[in-house]
Each structure stands twice: as C-alpha cells, then as structure tokens.
Design brief:
By secondary structure, the protein is an alpha+beta fold. 32% of the residues lie in helices and 16% in strands. It has eight helices and nine strands. It has a seven-stranded mixed sheet with strand order 1-4-6-5-7-8-9. The longest helix has 16 residues. The protein is globular, with a radius of gyration of 18 Å. The relative contact order is 0.17.
C-alpha cells in the first residue's frame, strides 16, 4: 500500500513522550519488514487519546483504541495481512458497495431492495461538534476503570487519515467477507467526508467509529442503512428483527457511534 514514510522504526529516537508500549510487526505470513503499529502495554485512561493524537499527528501517526475482547487477542495475534492490502485511494466507495450489494442483497433482502440505491447524500444538519473532538470525547468515555471498555489499550498507526488505519495495518477482521481491507477503508473515507466518522476502536473482528455528522431524519438513516448492509451484512442479518428500516431507526438515527462485527 502507498503510504507516507513510516516513523515507527525510529519511534524511540523521535522524542515522543509515550507510555510503555510495543511495536507490532507480526503478520499471518511472519515478520513484516517494518512495524505496523505501536500500542500501549497497559490499559489507557481518559485523556490518553488526546495526548497520543497531539504527539503522533505531527509525525503522521494517528490513534486508535485496541480491544482484546473476549479472546484476549492483541494485535500481534490478529493475523494481519499487509501483503494482501492495496491502497484505499485506488477504490471507489460506490463501486465497492455496489459490488457487495449485488453479492448479498438479492439473497438476503426482499425484492424491494433488489437494486443498489447508490450512496446516500450527506445529512442536511451541520455537525454539532468537530469529528476529532467527538472522537476524543468518546475515547474518554470508553477508557479508564469506569469506562465502557476498561481494558482497552491505545495504538498509534502510520496513516494519512483515520479511515486508512485499517489498511495501514492490514487488518484482517473482515477476512471471511473481504480479503483486501483497503476496499473497506475506501468506504470509510467516503463516510469521513459525508458523516465525519473517525475510527475509534478495533478488535480482532470488530470496528467502532464515531460519527460527527449522523443522519437526523429517518429518510437519511434509511438511505444510509443500505450502505451499512453492503459494508457489513452481519450487522443486519445477525441482529433481530433483520430489517433495514428498524436498523436505520435504532442504529443510525442521531447515533454518535457505529459498530461492526464480521462473523
């Protein structure tokens, strides 16, 4: 994948004041030729996201929370596949989602959803706060002993933009659905532009993003629900009542985070 120069090999000499952590170069095929990410050795607390972002961004490093999950699986055990990952900018989000839709929708949705409806327009309402500010706020709510995910750690990843974090590490979470995660990063880029998303947290096969500009009407949410189905059918197929309208109403309308899981 085409990237900026990777600052991780010289991280120790960069002058960054970081907590104890580890560089990860382990992939499904063995050791990669350079580190793919750095992450903390211990759980993080509120404020750490903002500190890491401020320290890493001048070097081309972006933060993401890391969830070991029920597997207690950390990035060195994630079967990363950078060798098989292309560049997000080489893919068109509409074409990617249309292809997924054609593969899944005819079999799994009713006849009313036979045709790919195209990308949803951006929401009409302006953002209530900056996307980066929301990401920092949600990271603080996730972390610490009283947080939603008290055991999560934090990583720094060499990436141009938040949407590219998945591709930059060769994340294999959706491997049973898509073996080139750069195609999903291309969709995340489009969601960055239209919805102000930021990649907040990654697990072995889970992804959570913050949403700086969510749909504020049911029509907007319904239009977006088709994209979510194409991006991650398991979000609808494995969550009763298995209906796009219900998913739009409960998971997209005015929601500040979106979560995805691939079986």
């Amino acid at each position: 994948m085409a990237t900026l120069p990777n600052p991780l090999p010289s991280l120790a000499a960069s002058g960054l004041q970081l907590p104890p952590g580890s560089l990860v170069d382990a992939t499904i095929d063995g050791t990669w030729h350079e580190p793919l990410l750095w992450y903390t050795d211990a759980p993080v607390v509120p404020g750490d996201w903002s500190r890491l972002r401020a320290a890493g961004r001048p070097l081309g490093l972006l933060p993401v929370l890391i969830d070991g999950g029920r597997r207690d699986a950390w990035p060195e055990d994630w079967d990363l596949v950078p060798e098989d990952t292309s560049y997000p900018g080489d893919h068109d989000a509409d074409e990617v989602l249309a292809g997924y839709w054609a593969e899944c929708a005819p079999e799994e949705l009713d006849a009313a959803h036979a045709e790919w409806p195209g990308l949803a327009p951006a929401p009409g309402a302006p953002s209530a706060q900056s996307p980066d500010g929301l990401a920092a706020e949600m990271a603080d709510m996730c972390t610490g002993p009283e947080g939603w995910f008290p055991s999560v750690r934090a990583a720094l990843v060499p990436a141009r933009r938040s949407a590219d974090i998945l591709a930059a590490i060769g994340w294999s979470g959706p491997l049973n659905y898509e073996n080139d995660v750069a195609r999903l990063s291309a969709v995340l880029r489009s969601w960055e532009d239209r919805y102000g998303i930021r990649v907040l947290m990654l697990g072995f096969d889970t992804l959570t993003v913050t949403v700086g500009r969510p749909p504020t009407t049911l029509d907007e949410a319904r239009a977006l629900a088709a994209e979510h189905f194409a991006f991650c059918p398991d979000n609808i197929n494995q969550n009763p009542p298995y209906d796009l309208d219900d998913y739009a109403r409960s998971n997209l309308l005015d929601q500040s985070t979106w979560s995805f899981w691939w079986d």
